[in-house]
């Protein structure tokens, strides 16, 4: 009996630690910034974009963060116990989770699929590692089960979304080039480009 209790406690503690750490795959904190190179696969046009978390708020007793990730609703949260990323919806939401829609489930294992509110389904396609900024990170990649129904989103632990593909049938791809997560800088240090106002050089300063 004692051995069974020890095994049960070990299982609960290990899963609790894992669940609490899963939120690191999507670090939602105000002032976190991600810088992406983007390209539209149809036109070939691309550029650079900075995305950030600008504020947080309490809605229906839950804490959400205001984000501007392409293809995602603005108010997002992650449940540190279930590993589910939810988006706030003022009208409706999923029948099994009123007021919210499920975005991705970060506790998923490879090949697990997630049923969302409608026909759309998500597939965890990879749970390996990714090399970013000279370091190796655990990753969770999510793709649509059916090609025409959803965007691809790839998460790296302690980094967040390192790749997004949004749009159909010609998606726009976003590849991470640098970020500031919880005050720590990763990758490219030039997150914003400052353009000079003019080329005038003064003779002296006073």
Task: Write a concise synopsis of the structure shown.
The chain contains one helix and 14 strands. It has one helix at residues 2-22, and strands spanning 33-40, 46-59, 62-67, 75-78, 84-94, 97-105, 113-115, 121-126, 129-132, 135-144, 152-156, 160-166, 172-181, 184-187. Strands 1, 2, 3, 4, 5, 6, 7, 8, 9, 10, 11, 12, 13 and 14 form a 14-stranded antiparallel beta sheet that branches.
Structural notes for this entry:
26% of the residues are buried. The longest helix is centred in the first third of the chain and has 21 residues. This protein is globular. By secondary structure, it is mostly beta strands. The protein is 10% helix and 49% strand. It contains 1 helix and 14 strands. The N terminus and C terminus are likely disordered. Strands 1, 2, 3, 4, 5, 6, 7, 8, 9, 10, 11, 12, 13 and 14 form a 14-stranded antiparallel sheet that branches. The termini are far apart.
């Amino acid at each position: 009996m004692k051995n069974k209790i020890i095994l049960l406690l070990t299982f609960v503690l290990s899963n609790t630690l894992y669940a609490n750490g899963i939120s690191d795959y999507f670090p939602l904190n105000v002032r976190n910034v991600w810088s992406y190179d983007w390209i539209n696969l149809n036109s070939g046009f691309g550029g650079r974009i900075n995305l950030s978390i600008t504020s947080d708020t309490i809605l229906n007793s839950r804490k959400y963060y205001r984000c501007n990730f392409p293809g995602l609703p603005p108010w997002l949260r992650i449940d540190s116990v279930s590993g589910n990323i939810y988006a706030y919806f003022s009208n409706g939401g999923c029948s099994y989770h009123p007021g919210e829609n499920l975005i991705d489930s970060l506790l998923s294992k490879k090949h697990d699929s997630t049923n969302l509110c409608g026909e759309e389904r998500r597939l965890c396609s990879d749970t390996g590692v990714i090399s970013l900024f000279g370091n190796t990170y655990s990753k969770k990649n999510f793709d649509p089960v059916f090609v025409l129904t959803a965007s691809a989103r790839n998460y790296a632990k302690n980094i967040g979304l390192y790749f997004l593909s949004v749009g159909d049938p010609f998606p726009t791809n976003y590849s991470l080039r640098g970020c500031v997560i919880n005050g720590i800088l990763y990758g490219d240090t030039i997150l914003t480009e400052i353009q000079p106002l003019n080329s005038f050089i003064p003779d002296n300063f006073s």
